[in-house]
Amino acid sequence: MVEEYKTGRIVVPAAEEVLGKRFDCLDHGFVRLVDYMGGDEAIVQAARVSYGKGTKSTSEDRGLIRYLMKHKHTTPFEMVEMKWHCKMPIFVARQWIRHRTANVNEYSMRYSESKNEFYVPELENVRYQSGMNKQGGSDKEMPETVSETVSKIIKRTNEQTTKDYNLMNKVGIARELSRVVLPTSAYTEWYWKNDLHNTLHFLRLRMDKHAQYEIRVFADAMADVVKKVAPMAYEAFEDYVVNSVNFSPEEQTALSRILKGEDRDSVLEGIKNKRERKEFDVKLEDFLN
Question: Which of 85, 202, 269, 281 ranks highest by number of CB atoms within 10 Å?
């Protein structure tokens, strides 16, 4: 008979339901929560450390968490940890690894062979280069014949590199060398552990509509899990970070003039930098609507 053991750690029932569950992303990728430490209660405990646990009611906890998020008191959010197992194309991993606050252990193709899984975008996700953003795609409509041709090129490249890679392995070339022929569409995987504060920072950047589609898919999937681990913190994050609008001093002056009745186009023309003018116009549209 197995003796039942009761843990003394903070357990979040909703998080337990998704623990270890795989959430598919793109054609071969996924994210899954491997483990977590703490939730909303841990944030409150950290913030009220001078008073012990100090929990009086759920509404008070929610109010405290919202205050912390609104006023950027970030340390209590660092008391929550999440460990993920993720599988993504290499080019997505290279964007992801820019978030350097995490602990990462990646699948090594020096010691293990490639699984010969490659990302091929759906036709609707083949994009033209943006004329305004040097590192982004455009919303310009693409003829289906063009996207089909691009898809065929990617598939052909993947198939050829798979043949070359397998041939090099077959004749005994070191894996650390044979892997160099693999494209960045090849899949890799890792364990990624980070605290809640820095995970939310990752989500803020990678869920943004301007982020590359492929990494947004992973960020959106992770966000759904984070909501389970710390729902009150995530609610505050949505209200005070994701859906908030920040205006620079120049933008505040322009906004004030528009609210006082000045012609919007004339005010916008007063912002000399073309990119800043366009960004303000977008924020203004969101703010006024």
Answer: 202
